[in-house]
Amino acid sequence: MSDTPIIVWFRRDLRVADNPALSEAAKTGRPVICLYILETERERELGGASKWWLHHSLQSLSEDLEAIGATLILRKGQAFRILDMLIEETGADSIYWNRRYDLAPREIDAAIKSDLKARGLTVETFRANLLSEPWTVKTKTDNYYKVFTPYWRAAQDSLDTGKPLPTPKSIKTYTGEIKSNSLESLKLLPSSPDWGSKMSPHWTIGSKGAAKALEQFVGGPVADYPEDRNRPDKDNGTSKLSPHLAFGEISPKQIWHGCKGNLDSARKFLAEIGWREFSYVLLFHNPKLATENFKPAFDGFEWNPSEDNLQAWQHGQTGYPFVDAGMRQLWQTGWQHNRVRMVTASFLIKHLLIDWREGEKWFWDTLVDADPASNAASWQWVAGSGADASPYFRIFNPFTQGEKFDPNGDYVRKFVPELSKLPKKYIHRPWEAPQNVLDYAGVTLGKTYPKPIVDHKEAREKALAAYKASRE
User: Which of the following is catalytic: 203, 356, 362, 364?
Assistant: First the structure.
């Protein structure tokens, strides 16, 4: 047995269980070097909320590795340079990693793999973060699916939903001296001001937090998911596993396995895992999904950019309580309920006629679950420009959506406290409240809470007219 070390390069797979690269390296019995690189040649910088999560996720991973005898090495810079330096420092002759699927990282990985193999080193790569590869499921014409429902139906036979890999019992760690950056030196946490600390009470970051969230959700709420997933006023209506998935603190296979005893009631929930898989299919075949319309017909759409309206939307000051509650939830917690994501996105695109890419960028920066595939695919879905998209003329009514899915106004009261004393009859339409009701609730429209920045009916008519003009 060789004592030549193996480098395991962690990326968006920050876990020790069901991690094929780590498991295969541990199996060899050779010394293992566990490495995370904060890559500086990224095509797209991580968003601020993602950096905050990453800091704590790396801390958790380091503790999990220490528990099985390994040490996490942190470096910052260009991946190929750092790997070269580490190979030279340690004599490692094998590099293991789990595959990535967005184009720029794929190209980096391909170039590194080609170079290392040409020099006689071993490179092993694995599928770890999807249930099937994005190129696996094909139509009868050997193309990729562009509509979710037939994709998900066809994908069932290709999904790897077997038993997840266990955590290695122990890892033979490399005992030579290796320099590592301190976690603090990566400067992932926000400062001046430290807006990240406000998100801390809402999350338990790391694989243990992910496992606990899955256990709690599968233990009961999953049965009511088909209805409750649309209710932002219910704290346990969704699993809140999305950031754990985005950073690979839990794998989709672990989630599927966790639902195994309850597959019938979990069917709708697992279809959301399917949407994530489908989003990666779209991203793999359309690398510019975050910046270019999937449907070129939308390239001629005439947007109406307004910095004032964009900022009002970003900061939850649109005068539409359900929209504002969602945007404030996002800012306070780094997360937004999925039903509300559709409503807030529709409002930006169709009420304000602001380019969907502005919303995608804001969510990329402020979501702790910002994902290169799901974020872009979902924004294009709402815009009507994407694959299997909601038609552009489907315009969510921001106050009837609130009345339907936050019927008592609890969600709005939580995140828009200046409206908390309004009765439920007016909580989603404060502009319709009589003056005596507003006075009793301490609400002065235009002062304590903004008047609507656009009229719903007029905005809807303008959006439809703009859509029609783009088709002529």
Answer: 356
Reported as type and span, the H/E element at residue 150 is helix 148-155
Instruction: Answer for the pair 182, 74: CB distance below 8 angstroms, yes or no.
Output: yes
Q: Which two tokens stand for residue 401?
A: 């959506």
Best CA proximity match to 416, nearest among 300, 290, 324, 340: 324
CA distance 33 to 22: 10
Choose the catalytic residue: 124, 195, 338, 418: 338
Q: Does the active-site annotation cover 313?
A: no
Measure the CA angle with vertex 437, ends 433 and 438; round to 5°.
Answer: 75
Other CB atoms within a 10 A radius of the CB of residue 193 amount to 8
Count CB neighbours of 432 within 10 A. 10
272 is catalytic: yes
Q: Which residue has the tokens 């990224």?
A: 42
Name residues whose C-beta falls within 8 Å of residue 122's C-beta, 6 or more positions apart in sequence: 93, 94, 95
Identify whether the C-beta of residue 95 lies closer than 8 Å to the C-beta of residue 125: no
Catalytic, 236? Answer no
Helix axes 356-366, 338-346, angle to 10 degrees: 140
Query: What does the pLDDT average to over 271-295?
Result: 97
Q: Which position among 24, 195, 275, 292 bears the catalytic label?
A: 275
Q: Give the model confidence (pLDDT) of 175-208 as tens digits.
A: 999 999 999 999 999 998 899 999 999 999 999 9
> Which is nearest to 141 in space by CA: 154, 132, 131, 152?
154
One-character DSSP codes across 379-447: HHHHHT-STTPPPTT----HHHHHHHHSTTSHHHHHH-GGGTTS-TTTTT-GGGS-HHHHHHHT--BTT
Q: What is the pLDDT of residues 305-325, one digit of tens each?
A: 999 999 999 999 999 999 999
Active site residue 303: yes
Of the candidates 286, 379, 381, 397, the residue annotated as catalytic is 379
Instruction: Report phi then psi at 307, rounded to 5.
Output: -65, -40
**Could you confirm whether 331 is annotated as catalytic?**
no
Catalytic residue among 39, 272, 277, 358: 272
Eight-class DSSP state of 77? E
Is 432 an active-site residue?
no
Q: What type of residue sits at position 195?
A: W
Please give the full DSSP string across 285-351, using - where no structure is assigned: H-TTTTTS-SSGGGGG------HHHHHHHHTT-SS-HHHHHHHHHHHHHS---HHHHHHHHHIIIII
Task: Walk me through the domains of the chain, giving residue ranges and CATH numbers.
Answer: 6-128 (3.40.50.620), 130-163+207-285 (1.25.40.80), 296-471 (1.10.579.10)
Catalytic residue among 63, 195, 262, 303: 303
Q: How far is CA 45 from the centre of its chain?
A: 15
pLDDT tens for each residue of 41-88: 888 999 999 999 999 999 999 999 999 999 999 999 999 999 999 999
Omega cis (within 30) before 193: yes
